[in-house]
């Protein structure tokens, strides 16, 4: 059987104040972590259809670390192998070396091309360094280059977002993820009133999202998921697997997996992960129900879900279409950009999870 493979790298040069991902600047167990990741990858008996190194900051690994971990996997020839990278930790030589180690898709956490916004987010890179990292990736031979941008961040205006989008599409980028900032409870940002005051309100953020969708479409980046846009043929194959409810392995603390119909999570600490022969596995729930499949594929704005998948969906579709929140094409119901803004409400309205 073929399945995807996610590998979590829980190290960051510095913790960003808005982030609640499992990551830390403590890299004392990095070598042990790579060995444990390799051990766990080796224990996967499936052929691997795609690999994704996420984090954290995978670009804090050495090129030989990637090669070592990948050598333990049986990867389908030509498979997409992605790594997330911080523009502040990746120069051309490094990028060229990780490409030689097997990475063929690179995803940079750019977030903004405005230095004031980057500073408010606590990022370690500047707008200039972000542009330079994207050029370096191209020079290093990457064809498949993604940039993450954020919407609704402190000090952002429609104008500054437009400038960030203009910068992104003018650089060698084939894929853009545009996420709305979520203020996660317990993060330093959630308690920083002087920054929270400068966050655009929900209506402004929604307008910015709609403008971003339009701008990206006009510039050759077709929306294929609520937050994801790609030039033709550059959709992220690994992430498409999640939304299509395909199974995958998840390795490393906080990583989720979906294998043999069960969803699970690794709750190990970094130390436990490095010491255990095989990572811990906490069962979450059975996966792959009709409701779950519908909820995930509803995110896929190009593919959509069969209009007759649920009785109530079929009954209520007309209302949603009239309101401009959905459209119907060849029997498939798809969210419009306006619908993407209220996807959770649509799921409830249509009884998809009942
Ligand atoms: S670099 Fe990414 S994973 Fe690391 S702290 Fe910042 S946002 Fe979180």
According to CATH, the homologous superfamily of the largest domain is: Aldolase class I
**For the largest beta sheet, what order do the strands appear in spatially?**
7-8-6-5-4-3-2-1-9
**What Rg is obtained from the alpha carbons, in whole angstroms?**
20 Å
Q: How many domains make up the coordinates?
A: 2
* CATH third-tier fold name of the largest domain: TIM Barrel
The CA-CA distance between the termini, in Å, is 31 Å
Number of helices: 14
User: What does the average pLDDT come to?
Assistant: 96
The CATH architecture name of the largest domain reads Alpha-Beta Barrel
Bound molecules: iron/sulfur cluster
Proportion in helices: 25-40%
Structure description:
This protein is of the alpha/beta class. It folds into 2 domains: 2-242, Alpha-Beta Barrel (TIM Barrel); 305-349, no CATH class. Helices cover 36% and strands 23% of the residues. It contains 14 helices and 15 strands. It has helices at residues 30-42, 63-71, 92-100, 115-120, 127-139, 158-170, 193-196, 202-218, 237-243, 270-275, 290-297, 311-322, 337-340, 343-349, and strands spanning 2-9, 47-55, 75-85, 105-111, 144-151, 175-180, 222-225, 228-230, 248-251, 256-259, 262-265, 282-286, 305-306, 326-329, 332-335. β3, α3 (92-100) and β4 form a beta-alpha-beta unit. It is globular. Bound molecules: iron/sulfur cluster.
């Amino acid at each position: 059987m073929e399945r995807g493979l996610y590998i979590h790298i829980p190290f960051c040069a510095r913790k960003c104040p808005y982030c609640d991902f499992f990551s830390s600047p403590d890299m004392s167990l990095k070598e042990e972590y790579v060995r444990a990741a390799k051990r766990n990858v080796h224990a996967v008996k499936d052929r691997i259809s795609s690999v994704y190194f996420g984090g954290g900051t995978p670009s804090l690994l050495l090129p030989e670390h990637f090669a070592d971990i990948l050598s333990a996997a049986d990867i389908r020839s030509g498979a997409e192998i992605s790594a997330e990278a911080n523009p502040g930790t990746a120069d051309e030589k490094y990028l060229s070396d990780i490409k030689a180690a097997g990475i063929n898709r690179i995803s940079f956490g750019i977030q903004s091309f405005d230095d004031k916004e980057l500073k408010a987010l606590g990022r370690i890179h500047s707008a200039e360094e972000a542009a330079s990292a994207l050029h370096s990736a191209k020079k290093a031979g990457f064809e498949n280059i993604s940039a993450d941008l954020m919407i609704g961040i402190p000090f952002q205006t429609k104008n500054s977002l437009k400038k960030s989008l203009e910068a992104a599409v003018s650089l060698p980028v084939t894929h853009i993820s545009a996420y709305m900032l979520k203020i996660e409870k317990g993060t330093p940002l959630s308690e920083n009133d002087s920054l929270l005051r400068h966050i655009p309100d929900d209506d402004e953020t929604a307008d910015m999202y709609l403008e971003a969708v339009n701008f990206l479409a006009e510039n050759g980046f077709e929306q294929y998921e609520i937050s994801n846009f790609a030039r033709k043929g550059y959709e992220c194959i690994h992430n498409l697997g999640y939304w299509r409810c395909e199974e995958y392995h998840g390795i490393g603390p906080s990583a989720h997996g979906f294998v043999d119909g069960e969803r699970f999570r690794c709750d190990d600490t970094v130390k436990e992960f490095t010491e255990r022969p095989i990572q811990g596995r906490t069962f979450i729930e059975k996966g792959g129900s009709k409701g779950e499949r519908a909820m995930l594929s509803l995110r896929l704005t190009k593919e959509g879900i069969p209009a007759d998948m649920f009785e109530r969906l079929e009954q209520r579709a007309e209302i949603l279409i009239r309101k401009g929140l959905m459209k119907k094409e060849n029997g498939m119901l798809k969210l419009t950009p306006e619908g993407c803004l209220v996807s959770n409400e649509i799921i409830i309205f249509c009884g998809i999870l009942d």
